[in-house]
């Protein structure tokens, strides 16, 4: 080989450079000018810039220039500020935990489903307690509607044994959303593991204690926040020694998201709450490095794919910044993130579309770097899932891992100019809102002032407005609905005897204990009242071992305590609810009268002349469940009027073009009103120069792209007697 020869790789690179040098690179200005020309006079800002609920305006094109001043892009996975993930190897060697909720009320039913699902791809136990258990009430002292609703009814150590029978908690991570009952649940769990001969040291997962989330969800707590923080400190202090791999503080963003909050608002509320918990724990002698590693952040994930990826990355970024400001070490600056797919955007109508929504959300969750995830079942808005519903939701996660291979690259979104710029913008805006809440005196004070609630209510109102004008859409509900759809019933059979059976079981449990055991339980419970946080869990475990129930322990912690101040709770809702109520009213009217209310389309002229507005009108009114009487068009006003009257429809929509309306609308409207004075005449379009004359001719309503769909449907349905 000649001494002047070059390696093949170098030769290829030189040839590539030579070829590329023959072409000029367009500048941003070149692209911008081409885009403006393509718009043919339309506004670049209005057409190509996208405002968001987060106060961030999205650009149509992102460049390296957009990352100037963004420092986190120089970081690597597993290193502070952890924006690229908590682990050096991402999900390559340890995928996220498939942590599906199983919302069954009876412990044995929960166990049956859990053991099935753990053999079919689920990798973590995600135990959600029912409302009664989360509030610290035993079934024999709780309203029936709170027993078994949305989670497991858990009262005694035997209940926990039945729920977790056959599950090796040394090998399987455990997440428990315990609500206000974290002390009692942890005591039950410790007693269970001791009985099983299992080590708490090997227990991995988390017990959820998040009093501010409970407060903002319900509007009240059964005791002052000081008691909640005593419980938090006791649980955290105990876990530091006895269960070092267990997180004890959960900071949830679910209530904020599912009330309509933006990504920035959800993140800011989570950050402010977490900072408040850090301060409160420091006040009782724990250090930031004691507390921060015991925290688990829980975020919702919606269908705005890139926004949600950026939100999760920004969550790690701002959390690391906050913990660093407290003096926490690098290990304390990272927190596991559990994600749950959104409830806000799920629909009762066309529920199978929910599978598609959750697929997008799950993809965002994995790309954003979650540590564990629950994908909601497609029929979640309808009722508890059955085996099929659970399997589809679980398999969504498994397909992402096993078939889509999303774990092959570490932080696959990293380096994207768009995602990195969006991550930075969310982090900056969330930090600003965090500071605004801090100026209120912290999260608890801000909640009492109603500041976060007001902020989120404004965003929720904007979301409602955008759904009502179809600026935002819910496919199958506000766009392309199926009027002939038969709603699916709840797939899981109703357990009508659940509340009665559970109350009787606990009553029998108390009888079986006898007076001697009851006296021992009372003695152990008395220790809980005045014990210090450091030994609170030990006292609770002793009480459980003696036979105390969850309700016994929580009641002992509340003796003599007044409830917290009442605050305005968040309005947790689904965006589709108001439209589903309209469909329900129409369905009830149809069942009562024997016929679905109909609207006649007065399509004027040949198909190309009327089709666009006819299609728009069909999609518009089918949202309310109306039957749309379509046709191929009429060549004369008289023909259209006669057909409309003959149809018997109580409302008519005139569909044609703006330039034909002056000659068509007045005579057609007058003919319709003359034949049937009560008929409702609607015009598809909004010809501003003719509005008054058309109204004078008898047109009752105009529909167009900026029309408030919901308001028009309500007005029409009231006029037709469908709504009161």
TrEMBL record:
Q: Name one GO biological process term.
A: propionate metabolic process, methylmalonyl pathway
Q: Which UniProt keywords apply?
A: Cobalamin, Cobalt, Isomerase
Gene3D superfamilies in the cross-refs? Cobalamin-binding domain, Methylmalonyl-CoA mutase
Where are the residues of the annotated region Disordered? Answer: 133-153
Against InterPro entries, the record matches this protein to:
Cbl-dep_enz_cat, Cobalamin-bd_sf, MeMalonylCoA_mutase_a/b_cat, MMCoA_mutase_a_cat
| A molecular function GO annotation | cobalamin binding
GO cellular component labels: cytoplasm
UniProt entry tagged with the keyword Magnesium: no
Boundaries of every Methylmalonyl-CoA mutase alpha/beta chain catalytic domain copy: 52-558
Q: Which Pfam families match?
A: MM_CoA_mutase
Query: What cofactor is this protein dependent on?
Result: adenosylcob(III)alamin
Entry-linked NCBIfam families: acid_CoA_mut_N
Q: Which family does it belong to?
A: Belongs to the methylmalonyl-CoA mutase family.
Protein name per Swiss-Prot or TrEMBL: Methylmalonyl-CoA mutase
Annotated source species: candidate division KSB3 bacterium
């Amino acid at each position: 080989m000649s001494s002047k020869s070059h390696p093949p790789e170098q030769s290829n690179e030189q040839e590539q450079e030579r070829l590329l040098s023959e072409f000029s690179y367009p500048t941003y200005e070149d692209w911008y000018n081409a885009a403006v020309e393509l718009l043919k006079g339309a506004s670049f800002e209005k057409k190509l810039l996208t405002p968001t609920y987060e106060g961030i305006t999205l650009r149509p094109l992102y460049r390296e220039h957009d990352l100037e001043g963004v420092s986190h892009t120089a970081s690597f996975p597993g290193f502070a500020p952890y924006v690229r993930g908590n682990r050096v190897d991402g999900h390559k060697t340890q995928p996220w935990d498939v942590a599906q909720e199983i919302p069954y009320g009876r412990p044995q039913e929960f166990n049956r489903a859990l053991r099935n699902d753990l053999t079919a791809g689920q990798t973590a136990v995600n135990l959600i307690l029912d409302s009664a258990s989360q509030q610290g009430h035993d079934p024999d002292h709780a309203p029936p509607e709170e027993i078994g609703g949305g989670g497991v009814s858990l009262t005694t150590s035997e209940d926990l044994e039945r729920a977790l029978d056959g599950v090796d908690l040394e090998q399987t991570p455990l997440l428990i959303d315990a609500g206000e009952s974290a002390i009692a649940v942890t005591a039950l769990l410790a007693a269970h593991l001791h009985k099983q001969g299992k080590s708490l040291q090997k227990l991995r997962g988390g017990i959820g204690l998040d009093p501010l989330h409970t407060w903002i969800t319900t509007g009240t707590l059964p005791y002052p926040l000081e008691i909640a923080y005593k419980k938090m400190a006791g649980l955290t202090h105990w876990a530091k020694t006895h269960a070092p791999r267990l997180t004890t503080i959960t900071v949830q963003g679910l209530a904020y998201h599912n009330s309509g909050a933006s990504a920035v608002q959800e993140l800011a509320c989570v950050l402010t709450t977490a900072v408040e918990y850090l301060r409160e724990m420091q006040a009782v002698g724990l250090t930031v490095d004691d507390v921060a590693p015991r925290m688990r952040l829980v975020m919702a994930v919606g269908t705005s794919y890139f926004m949600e990826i950026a939100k999760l990355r920004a969550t790690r970024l701002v959390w690391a910044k906050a913990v660093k400001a407290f003096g926490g070490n690098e290990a304390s600056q990272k927190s596991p993130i559990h994600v749950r797919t959104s409830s806000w955007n799920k629909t009762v109508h066309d529920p199978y579309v929910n599978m598609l929504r959750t697929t997008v959300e799950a993809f965002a969750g994995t790309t954003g770097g979650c540590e564990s995830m629950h994908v909601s079942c497609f029929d979640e808005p309808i009722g508890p899932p059955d085996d099929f519903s659970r399997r589809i939701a679980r398999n969504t996660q498994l397909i992402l891992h096993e078939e889509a291979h999303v774990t092959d690259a570490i932080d696959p979104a990293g380096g994207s100019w768009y995602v990195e710029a969006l991550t930075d913008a969310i982090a900056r805006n969330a930090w600003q809102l965090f500071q605004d809440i801090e100026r209120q005196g912290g999260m608890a004070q801000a909640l009492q002032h109603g500041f976060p609630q007001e902020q989120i209510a404004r965003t929720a109102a904007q979301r409602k407005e955008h759904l009502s004008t179809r600026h935002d859409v819910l496919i199958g509900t506000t766009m392309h609905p199926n009027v002939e759809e038969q709603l699916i019933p709840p797939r899981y059979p109703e357990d009508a005897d659940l509340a009665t059976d559970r109350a009787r079981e606990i009553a029998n449990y108390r009888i079986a204990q006898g007076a001697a055991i009851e006296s021992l339980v009372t003695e152990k419970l008395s220790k809980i009242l005045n014990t210090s946080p450091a030994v609170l869990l030990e006292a609770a475990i002793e009480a459980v071992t003696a036979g105390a129930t969850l309700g016994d322990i929580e009641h002992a912690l509340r003796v003599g305590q007044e409830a917290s101040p009442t605050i305005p709770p968040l309005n947790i809702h689904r965006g589709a609810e108001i439209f589903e109520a309209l469909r329900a009213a129409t369905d009830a009217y149809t069942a009562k009268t024997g016929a679905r209310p109909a609207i006649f389309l007065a399509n004027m002229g040949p198909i190309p002349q009327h089709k666009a507005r006819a299609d728009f009108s069909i999609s518009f009114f089918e949202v309310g469940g109306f039957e749309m009487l379509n046709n191929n068009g009429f060549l004369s006003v008289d023909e259209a009027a006669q057909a409309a009257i003959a149809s018997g429809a109580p409302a008519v929509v005139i569909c044609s073009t703006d330039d034909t309306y002056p000659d068509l609308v007045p005579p057609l409207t007058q003919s319709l009103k003359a034949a049937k004075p009560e008929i409702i005449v609607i015009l598809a379009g909004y010809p501003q120069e003719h509005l008054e004359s058309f109204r004078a001719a008898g047109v009752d309503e105009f529909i167009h792209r900026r029309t408030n769909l919901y308001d028009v449907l309500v007005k029409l349905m009231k006029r037709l007697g469908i709504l009161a």
